[in-house]
Amino acid sequence: MSSAGLWKTLEALPPGQSVPLQQVFEQIPWNADGLIPAIAQQYDSKEVLMLAWMNAEALYETLEKKRVCYWSRSRQQLWRKGESSGQIQELKEMRFDCDGDTLLLLVDQTGPACHTGRRACFYNLVQGESLVVDKPVLIDPETLYGK
Amino acid sequence: MSSAGLWKTLEALPPGQSVPLQQVFEQIPWNADGLIPAIAQQYDSKEVLMLAWMNAEALYETLEKKRVCYWSRSRQQLWRKGESSGQIQELKEMRFDCDGDTLLLLVDQTGPACHTGRRACFYNLVQGESLVVDKPVLIDPETLYGK
């Protein structure tokens, strides 16, 4: 079955119907770098915390360990979220979108998700002709990552 | 100022401080295709509706008209969300993340955001060894898009 075929099949299914996950893994439309974007959302408050990227290995590890692992594009290596800061993300739910090219992760985020020490990465608000920082730093990054 | 420099400057600002938006526009780290991913979240329920992409023109139009316009990668043209279905997204808030390479749009979505007629695109839930469809179609796509 082609990738588009699998996702088309899912489109037409009523709630409660399913396909085997193994089949899905074979049909993920990875981008040219072998990655898929993953949105992390705090499961209870519903705050959108961040967007990062996963390769296949990061995705499988996240599902197996229920702790979120991304692929760092800048460092070109697996990025086990919280491995240096302690600010881990416990996976509560993983969802694929309608064409399978984006993930939504419902997580329980320990402390700040953002490397700046803010709870979430989206603290830059467009307001008129300005970009305004509207969220405080909760923990100094030097404390989070050591000096 | 380099792109990284601008975003680093913002990192260090306390809440309430800002930079001119024009300066931001010149420092968006567009991907190789000249695009930036945009997460659309329903502003009141906080449900994550979808992820799509914007080029500069789509971004400027969205801010000007307060109606969300994306760039369709499959059709390679501006995609004024709702132009054929009527299911528009009114822009309530636009946010940039910490390194400026992702947008979060708080929107008021009329009806279904998803082309399948479901409210949101993330209806495919990983559950054990299966991918389960867990959201119903609200409006038949044939009704949304005509036949």
What does this structure look like?
The structure is a homodimer. The first copy, chain A, is globular. In chain A, the strands form 3 sheets. A 4-stranded mixed beta sheet of chain A has the order 3-2-7-6, with helices on one face. In chain A, strands 4-5 form a two-stranded antiparallel ribbon. The longest helix of chain A has 10 residues, at about 55-65. The first copy, chain A, is an alpha+beta fold. Helices cover about 20% and strands about 35% of the residues of chain A. In chain A, a hairpin with a 2-residue loop joins strand 8 and strand 9 (about 130-135). At the A-B interface, strand 1, helix 2, strand 2, strand 3 and strand 6 of A face strand 1, helix 2, strand 2, strand 3 and strand 6 of B. Strand 9 of chain A pairs antiparallel with strand 1 of chain B.
Characteristic terms for this protein:
alpha+beta; globular; homodimer; 9 strands; two-stranded antiparallel sheet; 147 residues; four-stranded mixed beta sheet; 4 helices; 20% helix
Please give the count of helices of chain A. 4
Whole-number radius of gyration of chain A?
A: 17 Å
Largest sheet of chain A: 4 strands, mixed
Query: Which percent band covers the strand fraction of chain A?
Result: 25-35%
The secondary structure category of chain A is alpha+beta
Shape of chain A: globular
Q: What is the N-to-C succession of helices and strands of chain A?
A: HEHEEHEEEEEEH
Concise structural overview:
With 147 residues, the first copy, chain A, is of the alpha+beta class. Chain A is 20% helix and 33% strand.
